[in-house]
Give the backbone structure.
Amino acid sequence: MKLRRTIEGLGPYPSLLLLAVPTATVEPLKLAAVAVAGKGHWITGTAMIVACYAFSLLVLERLFVIVKPKLLTIPWFAKLWEGFVFIRKRTWKFLRASIGLRSDRKAVGSSSWRRAARAADSIHDRQCLRR
């Protein structure tokens, strides 16, 4: 908790630096891990990739959550973040519409599939009764 309070007490630009340094370190390591795997060291390369993604997910994500309020006080970062959120929402909306999901997350065609299945069952039952 003391570390978190210390991080929360940083200004906007030191917070940005605190987030940028580990990010700038782990992203090139992911590329290096692919190169290691490409040289034939599959186990080492895979372990490096897993470790880099785990670090990104577990440490950088948590760090971003802590420093995000400070980062949003930087005008250019706030505009970039707003643009990112806008694009993410539009993309998600487009993907949901393209795969047929409604806002309540039920498939649009689910009732028609049930009707078709019932119709197929009734046709099958009638054919069985004829025999």
The chain has a mean pLDDT of 84. The chain has five helices and no strands. The CA atoms of residues 89 and 95 lie 10 Å apart.
